[in-house]
Design goal:
alpha+beta; four-stranded antiparallel β-sheet; Mannose-Binding Protein A, Chain A
């Protein structure tokens, strides 16, 4: 009897709490032992009284949130990755449109770390950077200036390279101006070397040169009608060409 009373109280509390009808209760006699069988409602009401949400609905809603969240996260990550790809492509395109490159000091730092481009104002050819300096200097002053820029007076190792340097000068000066380059035989007359230490294997002397006139121990380019090498006194002041490795 006490058990039935407790069960009836539970049903009453459930009705008051959830605002739903009291389910049918089937009582079983003592032979089968007391039990309660709740009859499930045939269909759910359209509106939940008192704001009650069935457990199955809540679970379904939670599952939906759990399934949507990873999908949204993946979409956000994909969108971020796409944005980064677009930014990277834009930076690459911008760098292609900047042939002058960074400053000389920044370029020297980057080139020492393996970045293959030339500083602003320099021209690239065959793994080296070249620049024409229009301020006249003696050969020794020009060599020191090139060293301050990270290179030496230019060495020339082929006819193709010589034509490249000529064309660089021509674009700047609208002509084939005289210019010091890195050849010298000041150490031993008749034995020419490049100031950057590379082998002297290319000779492009003008006719009758070198003649060592007035102790001419330093190399000038664009000499004579043929615009070739000439030896000149090293204390003459001329424009010059610097070169440095990339």
């Amino acid at each position: 009897m006490k058990m039935w009373t407790v069960l009836l109280l539970v049903c009453a509390m459930t009705t008051l709490t959830y605002g739903a009808a009291v389910p049918e209760v089937e009582l079983v006699g003592e032979e089968g032992g007391p039990s309660i069988q709740e009859a499930a409602p045939e269909e759910e009401p359209d509106e939940m009284a008192g704001g009650f949400v069935p457990a199955s609905t809540a679970l379904n809603s939670t599952s939906a949130h759990r399934s949507v969240y990873p999908t949204n996260l993946k979409e956000d990550l994909d969108e971020m990755a796409g944005g980064l790809f677009i930014q990277e492509a834009a930076l690459e395109e911008e760098s292609d449109e900047m042939p002058d490159g960074p400053s000389i000091h920044e370029s020297n730092r980057l080139m020492s770390r393996g970045f293959p481009f030339c500083p602003s104002g320099w021209s690239r050819h065959n793994g080296r950077c070249f620049i024409y300096i229009s301020s006249p200097m003696t050969w020794a002053q020009a060599e020191r200036h090139c060293q301050d820029l990270g290179g030496n007076l230019a060495s020339v190792h082929s006819h193709v390279e010589y034509v490249f340097v000529q064309n660089m000068i021509s674009r700047i000066t609208q002509g084939f101006q005289f210019a010091w380059i890195g050849g010298s035989d000041a150490v031993e007359e008749g034995t020419w070397f490049w100031s950057d230490g590379t082998p002297f294997t290319f000779a492009h002397w003008d006719a009758g040169q070198p003649d060592n006139q007035a102790n001419s121990d330093c190399m000038l380019m664009n000499f004579g009608d043929a615009k070739k090498f000439d030896d000149q006194p090293c204390d003459f002041e001329k424009p010059f060409v610097c070169a440095m490795n990339m």
